[in-house]
Design brief:
3 domains; homodimer; six-stranded parallel sheet; alpha/beta; 45% helix; DNA-binding
Amino acid sequence: MVMADDPPRRQPTLEAVAELAGVSRSVASRVLNNAPHVSQGKRDAVERAVRELGYVPNPTARALATRQTGAAALVVSGEDPSIFADPFFAQVIVGASAALEEADLHLMLCLAATDRGRKRVEELLRGKGADGVMLMALRENDPLARTAEEAEMPVVFGGRPVGSAPRWYVDVDNTGGAREATEYLLSRGRTRVAVICGRLDTEVGRARYRGYQDAMLAAGLEPFPPHEGDFTEPSGAAVMAALLLQHPDLDAVFAANDNMAAGALRTLREAGRSVPADVAVVGFDDLAVARIADPPLTTVHQPIPALGREMARMLVALLNGEDPTPLILPTRLVTRTSA
Amino acid sequence: MVMADDPPRRQPTLEAVAELAGVSRSVASRVLNNAPHVSQGKRDAVERAVRELGYVPNPTARALATRQTGAAALVVSGEDPSIFADPFFAQVIVGASAALEEADLHLMLCLAATDRGRKRVEELLRGKGADGVMLMALRENDPLARTAEEAEMPVVFGGRPVGSAPRWYVDVDNTGGAREATEYLLSRGRTRVAVICGRLDTEVGRARYRGYQDAMLAAGLEPFPPHEGDFTEPSGAAVMAALLLQHPDLDAVFAANDNMAAGALRTLREAGRSVPADVAVVGFDDLAVARIADPPLTTVHQPIPALGREMARMLVALLNGEDPTPLILPTRLVTRTSA
DNA sequence: GCTTCCAATGGGAGCGCTCCCACCTCCCTT
DNA sequence: AAGGGAGGTGGGAGCGCTCCCATTGGAAGC
């Protein structure tokens, strides 16, 4: 990059390519978009000119003319930008990015956790700053939900927002996974199975508690009332401590995610309870922490990159004028040593 | 969103706003960019019209006219897209996103780990698909380095590429951090301090080994030759096992990141060595895993969100025509129980 | 009362591309 | 031999915005 007050030597334009190739802009354009109705001779000439000039089409101009930006936005809501630091999102992005790449779309990332951020997302949605949007981590009564509904733009939800099922979404079978985890604990002879819930103002938190509840009820056992953490390790440790105080005889705990399970493990260790002998622990997510924890966590695996991938694919389908159906991805229990 | 073959009812344009407000496009434009030379009366009229019509400026058209896209790209290179799953990047993004938001820039995320991905980044750079670029995780002889040099676009590097110092970069004091970690181990009376290196085809890997080496040499001790891991937990476990075999008497190990330190911890546990009594372990990064590990890791903290933030700020400065100086962020040792 | 100046205003020319359409040439039908 | 196509081609009109520039009118200065 040159810092000097450069002579406004600009990128070559299509016009320049056309001139060098001795054809009209139209023909040059057709060659670039490899559209039909171009003779082989001119096609070669244009391609040669492109190479000679080092021409690269200007995406902005193309976007203006076609009314398509060539980009999809991934919006992560939440009340604090650091929610994004959760490795969960990184994996979603890996999947989404790959699928978007196939459709030749760019990925814009919007952390809509501040007021400013939300305002910018709103502008993006209403001002056609992207061709479509993937929305994640909506909270209860999230203002973004409304904006998304109103926007004349395809919107795919990642995980359902609390209380409503949008037209297009991809989710994970949270209830089923939680149920399976709890059933597993019960099948191993545990009977006093406690639960560390996630935030109950999120659908994930609720759905996982529901799964736990279902399994307990089905086994004729009284479910523990919801003890709510916030999906972080410290909150898991704290809730576990409280649980131990109230129910010293518990023999298992289902944590709504791995972070909280890791916290629980720490508290149990400090309390001198051995895992899984005294207390069995099951988590949810199967992130790296599950393997690193001591003992390694038995947990509910969810296909996170697939979640991102399917969201992106659904968006692409929408962009192609199709009408895809919502998708719920399966989970599966991964047994390690903690239960 | 309406799926029907909608009557092409399009977004209102500036033209429409101007007409409704009874002014010219120019005046309306000035109001929107709150430029001077507009009477209060017309200003109000335009603002009213904007509200009435629900007008939102079209960013693409603006971009074409101003030759500025309003977006900055964060490019993550690497040989495998899953490199991005490392929580490190998520934290960089949190910082970068906040700084970009202040400058009203959008964030485009490019995972340039596939050939296709690299090609798209190249097009982005050469076709002015963004106003500037932040480049991370370049490998040795990464083709992206060249492309970036040639692009007429501000480029800020996150971490230096192997062997060369670009004009603008933000890095972390890897050598200093590694030296401090090793010195700490030595100061606690350890003398047989082994090292688990990161990939030596990355500057981070090299710099951290260099720091270790410096400290050993300064203490008159023979540094261990580099045993190379790849920054993952399993590789840390494997290298630790090899180390234990070759040097059964080692009494400390410096791992070039927390993941590998966690792996080392696992191997040591399985080998019946107690930490820190028999072997002290120090990591690098201070990611979540450091706190969750058992025992919690003593590690070199690096300000990751700050890294992202400073990269973004440097890019913004560049965009403003300034010429910022490279930045090296400090690290600091965080002592927990593993050493 | 007549310049001088400047805030206020609107017209128009792009920005670089796509795409519709008119036009022209061949070539294949009947 | 005349009438279609259909492929090939270029011109021109946008896409929605910014920005330069010419124009205006009134306030200030003499």
